[in-house]
Amino acid sequence: MNNHEIDYKLYGDDMQFVEVELDPQETVVAEAGALMMMEDGIKMETIFGDGSKSSGAGGLMGKLMGAGKRIITGESLFMTMFTNDGVGKKHVYFASPYPGKIIPMDLSQYRGKIICQKDAFLAAAKGVSIGIEFQRKIGAGFFGGEGFIMQKLEGDGMAFVHAGGTIIEYKLDPGEVLRVDTGCLVAMTQEVNYDIEMVKGVKTALFGGEGLFFATLKGPGTVWIQSLPFSRLASRVFAAAPQGGGKSVGEGSVTGGLFDLLGGKS
Fold first, then answer.
1. Percent over 70 (pLDDT), the chain
2. Domain count of the chain?
3. Which of 129, 137, 143, 261 has a CA-to-CA distance to 10 between 20 and 30 Å?
């Protein structure tokens, strides 16, 4: 085992948080802002990168390359490390940033690697490497929308991923294909063949209420799907928010925009 072996317990239903139990000198690494609370005796330290052995490879240059990858994913350059410096077991708690579920993943059960959405990672045992997974096809990179940049979690320890709404774990048989809205894809095992496809038909793209692209997942492998991506929740809240003068905008549909242009609203 290269990773610290941590124990955990999940609390709550739709607004979950995770309790991580640390033995003396055990460490857990988390995204900045994920902390909910911690017991006395735990040392909190901000680090450059993810704290894994691989992140220090090549000295300063290796760390700068790791930081560059995190910039691409839109995450902070720094992460926070929590170490039990006391005597006996100590506990630290991490909470989801929005309503949904926390998915505990033992990477040793998934051949040491999980691919997840760029904003899905919450925390992990020290030694888990957090990087980015580049798609082989250029089309996926340029047109994949919110789903084209994926993170990879590598190691043999525990990692915690969060997602919005209700989560379903879907097992794909060899050759089985599943098409998913790019925002609803949370994570997948490394065996899954992942690509981006454009929605066919101009009418479907303009008036269907869906995005122009979706993810095509081909088995074998396991995928995790969320019912409420944060981007969808945020767009609905923004659409319903009052604008200048106290007016509220419509549902954000193309037909609503056409109605405005034709003088339906003053």
1. 69
2. 1
3. 129
Phi then psi for 86, rounded to 5 degrees? -95, -165
Residue 180: which of 201, 137, 210 has the closest Cα?
210
What distance, in Å, lies between the first and last C-alpha atoms of the chain? 66
Backbone angles phi, psi at 56, to 5 degrees: -95, 0
The CATH number of residue 106's host domain is: 3.60.160.10
Q: CA-CA distance, 114 to 130, in Å (whole number)?
A: 10
Predicted pLDDT of residue 193: 92
In a domain? residue 223: yes
Return the closest-CA partner of residue 222 out of 179, 173, 181, 149.
173
**106, 103, 112: which is closest to 190 by C-alpha?**
112
CA distances from 238 to 52, 78, 231, 252 (A): 38, 29, 10, 9
**pLDDT recorded at residue 21:** 97
The winner for highest mean pLDDT among 34-38, 70-74, 192-196 is: 34-38
- For residue 42, the enclosing domain spans 7-228
Query: Contact at 8 Å (CB) between 174 and 218?
Result: no
Which residue, among 34, 33, 27, 31, has the nearest Cα to 2 in the 3D structure? 27
The answer, as to whether pTM is greater than 0.85, is: no
